[in-house]
Amino acid sequence: MADARLPPRVTVRPLRLLPDERGSLLKVLMRQQLPEPARFGEIYLTTAVRGATRGLHYHERSHEWFCVVAGSLRIWLQELDPAPEAVCRLELSADEPCLVHVPPRIAHAFENHACDRAVMLAYADRPYDPEDTDTFAHSFPVREQEGA
């Protein structure tokens, strides 16, 4: 699932899918897993068609949590402090759900390389503000070198 260079401030927590004859239940994020003081930010779904890359940015103040709920995605991560480190990647799949916490100053991008459409559930601890987006573009040169 992960390569060996996962930034130390990024956490990946396996989730337990609870199936029964009606379908399934997946608890993704609970208050006790948020940094204190916990306040509500925003929850959103994002989709990506095959070949699409989303993200390609980092935040100065925002924490985000991601969970693929349909299909699969490759997440690219790069620690920016104190100096940019090697780029790493995780393979995320709804078949093996997990929650990925990306703290501030970790650049991230999501690539759909394997399915027609992927769906990701996300939580950000700060609501989007068009006057102060806290979103800064970032490129991942290693992605192009690897032919990703």
Brief sketch in words of this structure:
The protein has 148 residues and is mainly beta.
Supply database-style keywords.
148 residues, mainly beta, five-stranded antiparallel sheet, 1 helix, 12 strands, 46% strand, globular
Characterise this structure:
- The structure is a single chain.
- By secondary structure, this protein is mainly beta.
- The chain has one helix spanning 141-145; strands at residues 11-14, 17-20, 23-26, 42-49, 53-58, 64-70, 72-79, 88-93, 98-102, 106-111, 117-124, 136-137.
- The chain has a five-stranded antiparallel β-sheet, with no helix packed on it.
- It is globular, with a radius of gyration of 15 Å.
- The mean pLDDT is 89.
Estimate the mean pLDDT confidence: 89
Terminal Cα span: 16 Å
Shape: globular
Structural class: mainly beta
DSSP helix fraction = under 10%
What share of the residues does DSSP label as strand, in percent?
over 45%
- What profile does the largest beta sheet have? 5 strands, antiparallel
Low-pLDDT sequence parts: none
- Please list the strands of the largest sheet in the order they lie side by side: 1-9-6-11-4
Number of helices: 1
Total strands: 12
SSE order, one letter for each helix or strand: EEEEEEEEEEEEH
Cα Rg: 15 Å
Write the topology of this structure:
Layout: E1 11-14, E2 17-20, E3 23-26, E4 42-49, E5 53-58, E6 64-70, E7 72-79, E8 88-93, E9 98-102, E10 106-111, E11 117-124, E12 136-137, H1 141-145
Antiparallel strand pairs: 1-9, 2-3, 4-11, 5-10, 5-12, 6-9, 6-11, 7-8, 7-10
